[in-house]
Amino acid sequence: MDFRKVERVLIYRLGSLGDTVVALPALHLIERTFPNAQRLLLTNIPVHTKAPAAFGVISGSGLVHGFINYPLSTRKVGELALVWWQIIRFGPQIVVYLMPTRGSRSLERDRWFFRLCGARLVIGLPISEDLDHSRFDPATRLWEKEAGRLVRCLSELGEVDIDDMSMWNLHLTAGEEERGQDVLRPLAGAPLIACGPGTKMQAKDWGRDNWRALLARLGAELPDHGLVLVGAKEDAETGDYSAAAWPGPVLNLCGQLTPRETAAVLRRARLFLGPDSGPMHLAAAQGVPCAIAFASVDLPGRWFPAGKGHRPIYHATECANCKLAVCIENKKKCIVSITVEEMFQAAIEAMKGAIPGADARSARKA
Q1: What does the CA dihedral 199, 235, 59, 75 come to, rounded to 10 degrees?
Q2: What would the mean pLDDT of 76-92 be, rounded to a whole number?
Q3: Of 44, 83, 150, 213, which is most buried, counting CB atoms within 10 Å of its CB?
Q4: Structural domain containing residue 295
Q5: Does one domain contain both 38 and 159?
């Protein structure tokens, strides 16, 4: 099949802000391979109020031209029939599969579903163990980033260097850039620190007292800097509490901007602070150095921010890679063991620039 002659491509990727940003290199590869095709994204509207939908992240980017809603976890025949009918009407020649493996039976079911929708070819199915899992790098003792695994699944479309920051470009519009600049006017041009302390997962919550202590310490070191807080509207109170001791100007933008407008704000920051979250991925995609308090709910490295020079603090406790959204039994020992001093030093190092091997050192034993 001559990919440049393909007219309709359906991309299957579920998830919200972070999952969408992590897929950006794969989406750029798809755009490059199928430049003349209409590209639709089959995705879900997140059920969590703090999780922006994919269309809020990439609408207007040109990476896709529209969306089909997939009702998450539905087993209702009517809802599935509606999805099937919308795909049939679109008539994709190719489906690009950007999902983690959910077992061989699920993969086979998905393959047949898309064939029944008229697709001649399904690309990207992680049908081997190697494609299903991130690769381990013994030199750094880190695991392959999920963005890298996704593009490996699309190897027949070509290669992408996920460290090439052009592959993370959201193609913000002039209006979005102008909005990002306008909302920062109250800071009167002060150098900017960004913080997104909120998270929708209890297991990833470092605690607002820790964020308050960190920002107080960092503010004393950088009294001429402004602080901007980002996140969902539900994070606004946590943001106010965390920033209470910041000595300079503070701007709480939680819930006031779209994800793309937030990106326009973040790209003007010297540093981003937060837990493993959607705003972290958004900041990293803008080339902003990040100091991150990582819960060890997954493999070290797999969800680390894109690019170089970041300082993720990850304590590899004996219960690491638990995949828990809520941690009760071990009382979040991995993330609560991260100290304010560790995060302060990580923030200062991130602002100074990349130090070879620092990412590997952060994935240490607690």
Answers
A1: 60
A2: 91
A3: 150
A4: 190-364
A5: yes
C-alpha distances out from residue 94 to 70, 149, 150, 208, Å? 18, 20, 17, 46
**Quick one: CA torsion of 12, 18, 21, 25, rounded to 10 degrees?**
-70
Which among 238, 285, 267 is positioned nearest to 19, based on CA atoms?
Answer: 285
Are 13 and 158 part of one and the same domain? yes
Q: Locate tokens 């900017």: which residue?
A: 192
- State whether 132 and 202 are in the same domain: no
CATH number reported for the structural domain that contains residue 243 in this entry: 3.40.50.2000
Task: Share the mean pLDDT of the chain.
Answer: 93
Judge if 255 and 329 occupy the same domain: yes
DSSP state of 243: T
pLDDT in tens, 206-264: 999 999 999 999 999 999 999 999 999 999 999 999 999 999 999 999 999 999 999 99
Q: Give CA–CA dist 24/17, Å, rounded.
A: 11
Q: With respect to residue 180, please indicate whether it lies within any of the assigned structural domains.
A: no
The DSSP line for 280-318 is HHHHHHTT--EEEEE--SS-TTTTPPSSSS-EEEEE--T
Q: Does residue 215 belong to any structural domain of this protein? A: yes
Q: Using one digit for the tens of pLDDT, what is the confidence trace for 127-171?
A: 999 999 999 999 999 999 999 999 999 999 999 999 999 999 999
Question: How much is the pLDDT for 77?
Answer: 81
> Can you give the pLDDT at residue 365?
34
> Is residue 220 within a helix (H) or strand (E), and if so which, with residue range?
helix 208-221
Cα angle: 95, vertex 298, 358; to 5 degrees: 110
pLDDT of residue 50: 78
Who contacts 110 (Cβ-Cβ below 8 Å, separation ≥6)?
A: 12, 97, 99, 122, 125
Residue type (1 letter), 286: Q
Structural domain count of the chain: 2
Cα(82)–Cα(77) distance, rounded to whole angstroms? 9
For residue 10, the cross-strand partners are 40, 95
Does residue 149 sit in the same domain as residue 199? Answer: no
Numbers of helices and strands, H then E, in the chain: 15, 14
Bridge partners, residue 39, by sequence: 9
